[in-house]
Amino acid sequence: MQPFAQRLDLNGRGLARHSVEVLQVNLGAYCNQACIHCHVESGPTRREMMSLETVQAVLRFLESTNIPTLDITGGAPEWHPNFEFLVESAVGSGCHVMDRCNLTVIFEPGKESLAEFFQSQRVELVCSLPCYSEENVDKQRGKGTFDLSIRALKILNELGYGYPASGLVLNLVYNPVGPHLPPPQRKLEQDYKQILNEQFGIVFNRLYCLTNMPITRYATHLKLRGEHDRYMELLAESFNPATLDQVMCRSLLSVSWEGTIYDCDFNQMLALPLRDPSGEKLHISTISLAQIEKLSITVGDHCYACTAGCGSSCGGVLVA
After folding, report:
1. Of the four listed, 114, 233, 306, 320, which is most buried by Cβ atoms within 10 Å?
2. Domains of the chain by range and CATH?
């Protein structure tokens, strides 16, 4: 397989950074689920969590820039003791806040008012539902997850989420169950909307199709099944240079629970941080946007997952 960096050179396309539109913050690795495809390797046994000092540094950085969107992720970010403080502070400063929610978290002890909190702050929700089939969801995310997810979506619908007129945005995320590329996003979105509405009366705004990233937990899963190399070849063979203008690392910065800065969440999991000219890792408490804009984007073979077929990003496909 040709290294991704060489493929970029052959196509005469670099990855220059555009203006930063999204600050994506990983609050920690703890999660009440342990999904097969999770590149963060989140789960109930993980205890890493962002300190209040770093949360405050995130807010100071947002206030000092014109970055319009705060994208909060984890783990299950809602478990962080300062989650509500971060959301309220960011919203109060005029930031648009997105939360990457696993849906089942709203049924955990102490989280009974979480859905109403989302509504009060008008948080945009991006919720994982890797299939409209109970069998596939439970296989990927754990037994009983599908039923809880459907219950959660109904609660969110009752609060106005998913209805265009409400302005309360509810997007769903699809991940393939096996080592293959996602189907066409627009057609799958139509299927999701029809089936979820007919069977459960559920509505939502958009469906995002994400390609599974062959790193960390999912890479281990593929290797145990003897599918890793074949999957990597599929991604490389499906490389689409038209996606390069839209890859999320051009307009997104990723912040780890420790406050270290990365080009994306995937580089974060592979310990590929942004560094200053002296080689020191950059931290949210000391960086400036001008400093970031001068740095090149770090790439690796995992980048084939973002550039295969129609492309993949935290906001779904990249090209039609």
Report:
1. 306
2. 17-212+244-295 (3.20.20.70)
